[in-house]
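Fold this sequence, please.
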Amino acid sequence: MVCGSSFAERSRNPETSVILFLTTNEEPDQELARDVVSFGADHRLDVRILSRSAIAHVLDHTPEGQSVRRRLLGVVQEMLSWDLLRELGARSVDEYPLSDDKSARVSTRTQIALRARKGPLTLLSGPSGSGKSVAAHDWLRSALDDKTIACLVLRERTLEDARGLDEAIIAELRVLHPALESGASLSSILTPGRKLRLVVEDLANANDPLRLFERIVGWLSSTSAAKGEGASRVGWHLVCPVQYRTIGSVPVERVKTIEPYRVEITPLTPHEASEAVRRRSASQERKLTTAEASSIAELLGHDPLLIGLHDPSEVSDPSRVIENYVARKLDQFAAGRPTIRIRVERALVTLTEAMLQQRTISPTLNEIIAWSTPAGYDQITCDLLDFGELVSIAPSGKGRLSFRHDRVRDWLLSDCFRRQFDSSTLVEDVLEEPFYAEWIGAGSGFDYGR
């Protein structure tokens, strides 16, 4: 049958070459192998025998073979293949720590602009709470079904510990798949036609955001490409959400080097904000008319964060949206238990006071427990961290404190100063400390709700 097919094809194209693969779970002896090869030569067939040992070699010692072995036999894969990269990347996108209501997301001009960019680097800049991370996440999600694109979220702690971007990617993949060999190579699987999309999770949580920002720019800048490093990164595109204050700290002489990569996040239009309000309300089974949604969106200043945090069942002063959100989450934690409600609020105040005293906004779990224990709030503080709606322990970076959003963090710290102003317990030396300036200003009576 094979010979007949090859003869028919050669009658149309005499130059056609035919390869016949013969597979077996045995090891054929040399005489049989020679007979098969001789038969092939007589019929102008290139016969290749895939014996048990040859198949085992491919399954055990090539990325593609290990991928087949994993999918069909359930054997743990150690070598990096394209399909494993895509699977692990999809997991990292699913686990991206965003607490917004995904059903309330709307298509924005920023997302459209991101999809039009080619890379290798996009610095998505904007103020806190402007939707940078959401836009970056949607950019990744939009490519998950494209088999020519792999996506991956890179945590800031992984980037800080890495000597280069390739090393950071492999380290992140090994967190998701510990069996992956440490010497895994990206260049062998990122063949022409394949693309890699990367997003930095949260630059603001880095120990030194500015230093990490400059390292990322250095890794992907045109200078690196000129040294030959860019040749192996064709098709790579990293998006790094970055706040204004980080970019504002870049030395003047280096500002020009980042401008080609900078994309300003576009504020929500009235229509986009209104649609976001309508979808958020609908997700909580509360229907709004177009006029009602527009009115609420305008009241919230078309602010993505405030739209995401406000309770659709009530319309309040925008300056109190975050305050109401915090109170609502503490109520949910207490679940109708008045004593627990009082204790958890006191525990949260104790935590924020200790953060200000120790001048750290990202303490470790051990530090948090040490601060909470003397007042007897260690257990309820741990319970609040596990609750995760206001504060939590980040899975990366030695178990450090993470907030629902940095504007929630700022409100809590500002509220701590407000309490001290009201009780006249604020230490005068604190007023002279630049570290506290932003929170003192907000806590002394300015619009700290936003």
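The two ends are 76 Å apart (CA to CA). Residues 2-61 form one domain.
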